[in-house]
Amino acid sequence: MIKGANAFVPTVPLRIAVRNGLDVAALLLTEKGRVRGDGDIVFHGATVHPSGAVRLMGEENGTVWLEAGLTAIEEEIVRVLVVGSTERGAMRDVDGLSVEAFAPDGTSVARYEVTDGGGETAMVLAELYRRAGGWKFRAVGQGYVNGLAGLVADHGVDVADVADVADEAPTPVQAASAPVTPSPAPVPFQVPAPATPAPVPFQVPPMAAPAPATPPPVAPASVSEPPSHPVPAHAGAPDWTFGAVFEPYTQTGRDNDVITVDGLPPGPVVVELAIRGDGYTGLWPLTRFNKEGDTLVNSTEEDFQGRVLAQVPGNGRLRLQLKAEGPWQLRVLPLAAARRLTEEQLECRGPDVLLHTGGTADLALHYRGDENLIVNLYELAGHDDPTALPTDDNVVNEIGKRRETVPLPEGPLIVHLEMADGPWRAQLKHLEPRSGPSNGDGLAKVTDIRQAQGRSWWGRR
Known about the structure:
mainly beta, 5-stranded antiparallel β-sheet, 38% strand
């Protein structure tokens, strides 16, 4: 399986192998994406869930085994995360990192090889989750540079309490004279218990649990019913002076596809994508050699939606490779169609492209997602080539729920939320007047923002 892919697995007791040499844990989550308490964490300080449905079996030659009895998991639990962490080095240093699920007869029913590990020290490798009355396995591969503490905190764990539980936990695995008893289901492999006591349970630094998430925004409209009203221009926003204006392009489809748009003006554009589905979403530009360029979208979020920046080459032909499961709509828009940052609060979901046209200001961001938040700035003052963007300045690169305040220079400025799976809010504070006229640098003046914005799939955009 590739990252983000998912597949149904049989609803039976599964054995899950995690390779190679990682500390392994399982988190049992409710529909809110959070544990109910310390008992919903299975690790080498508490090897069996109170229900008996999930247990840590042992380690052999660098492979750690988990057992998940899917038929015995409580109804309140809708997801089981398989988590790996390392005390030395990072995920990029782990050779042969993979997770594989086996049926009781030893048949492999799902396998995911993690090939893109980076500087993270903890990772959600995979998850088992309920779907249509059964269970699916998803290859996740979501790393956490702030380690196991950040990972478990993002799922409702008070890490200080976890450390206390670990200190009080009895020795989790018995000596060789009393081996771990496997489940009654016949399996072709046996995992021997360690001959020595298990290592000290994992410790995480004290950290307050994250505040409960605020209610999520309204879900996007069905892909078959795009709204018919245009997005209003933002009152009082000065004209945007960078990039050409063109009629928005729209294409709909289903599942994987290659989208080709001819006749666009060369330069940066906004690509808006929305998908109705729960699988992996990936989007890449294709080079003239039909090779994938830099990743535009890489998400496992259900019902993905968002806007990203793409570059139209000199021949005016934009080609995009899309990987998706379910119906989708893709739109190509001019930069002028992006929303303006003002002192009024924006509330949105997913990656986005925002424009700042005023003076110096502070950008207040409240991100309520569980995964990466990456924000880049493109300063356009003095940049006189509308066919290319200047070098970006990365101002935020974090994981999980965040409150960030970013000082912004004077516009014109593009604020690109390159990754932001989940809901967020943004608004300007301490906004100062511009020091000069809003229109300059000899760039074409955009006078009809309403025409540039065209029609949007989601009424709120």
